[in-house]
Design brief:
Rossmann fold, binds zinc ion
Length: about 325
């Protein structure tokens, strides 16, 4: 089968490998329907990397597929089912898993980052990672299962109240998903800060009331004028904009951190957080949000199709990376066949 393999910093190669086989009797073999690229993939492929990954692993942690083979111990799912994948495999035994905080698992590993993932024609996944999704759900909805599950976890911790003014930093796929959720969740005004003209346009389509270019003018002053006091909630969807977010939030407001960039180490004035009683919330991956994510996708309630910009094959992955970095591409759907 054809697949895209991580070989080290900045080194992703499309190559041929034998079709994988079920190892444990709780595994299934998936024929990958589609996968998508995300900011984490860019961080993995950056040099120096902003996120670790296992050299030799097939990348792709956002994907869905059809079950074509299943081990003896697989229950509840069967050959022919269409499933989305929660790529984060947790142990179920550690202190955090037993507290219900599975996303803080001490023994977590991830399909498509540390284990083989979905940039391939076939993939072996443990049944615990899979959630069935209706075959009627359009691919342009279903492809968002993994990122939407993460954003739903974060959104839940943002503590939105009806009418809150919200500023989202970044209008990549994650920022745009936040935008859609805050909009349908009852936010008052929604502002987005984004440098790319293309992503700014998509933010407006997806429901932003205003889109600022932080390179043109004083963003903090613009947000203050727009909101009166500053934003009730500021979301850093990029993973490196904590210091900027602190300048935009009102006293008593909340900063929600998302995005994974291990290189980011912004200098912040702790005094501002204390003096103004700012709440800072770190949020990480899906928590237990996959079931509600699947229902949201099946409902078709979010205008997700509007942010799909590219459809490519596996051979096109390397070529699309510059467009993702520049913001010209937003959601890229990869069909392995
Ligand atoms: Zn991702
Ligand atoms: Zn655990």
């Amino acid at each position: 089968m054809k697949c895209a393999v991580f070989h080290g910093p900045g080194d992703l190669r499309v190559e041929q490998r034998p079709t994988p086989q079920i190892g444990r009797n709780s595994d299934v073999l998936l024929r990958v329907e589609a996968a998508s690229l995300c900011g984490t993939d860019l961080h993995i492929l950056a040099n120096p990397p902003g996120h670790p990954a296992t050299p030799g692993a097939i990348l792709g942690h956002e994907y869905l597929g059809e079950i074509v083979d299943a081990g003896n111990a697989v229950e509840g799912l069967q050959v022919g089912d269409r499933v989305v994948v929660d790529p984060n495999i947790t142990c179920g035994r550690c202190a955090y898993c037993r507290r219900g905080a599975n996303n803080l698992c001490l023994n977590m590993t991830t399909l498509g980052i540390f284990l083989d993932g979905g940039f391939a024609e076939y993939n072996v996944a443990p049944v615990q990672a899979l959630y069935p999704i209706s075959k009627q759900t359009p691919l342009e909805q279903a492809i968002f299962a993994e990122p939407l599950s993460c954003v739903l976890n974060s959104f839940g911790q943002a503590g939105l109240k009806m009418g809150d003014n919200v500023v989202i930093l970044g209008a990549g796929p994650i920022g745009l998903l936040f935008l859609m959720l805050f909009r349908s969740g009852g936010a008052g005004r929604l502002g987005v800060a984004e440098i790319s003209a293309n992503r700014s346009r998509l933010a407006a389509v997806a429901g932003a009331d205003v889109v600022w270019n932080p390179r043109q003018g004083d963003l903090a002053a613009q947000v203050k004028e727009w909101s009166g006091l500053g934003a009730d909630i500021v979301v850093d969807s990029v993973g490196s904009l904590f210091a900027e977010a602190l300048k935009l939030v009102r006293r008593g407001g909340r900063v929600v951190l998302f995005g994974m960039n291990s290189q980011a180490a912004p200098a912040v004035r702790q005094y501002e957080i204390t003096r103004h009683e700012i709440s800072i919330v770190g949020t990480y991956i899906a928590g237990r949000t996959f079931p509600q994510t699947v229902r949201t996708l099946e409902s078709g309630r979010l205008p997700l199709e509007s942010i799909v910009t590219h459809r490519i094959g596996l051979d096109g992955i390397q070529g699309i990376l510059p467009a993702l970095q520049s913001g010209e591409a937003v959601e890229v759907i990869i069909r392995p066949e």
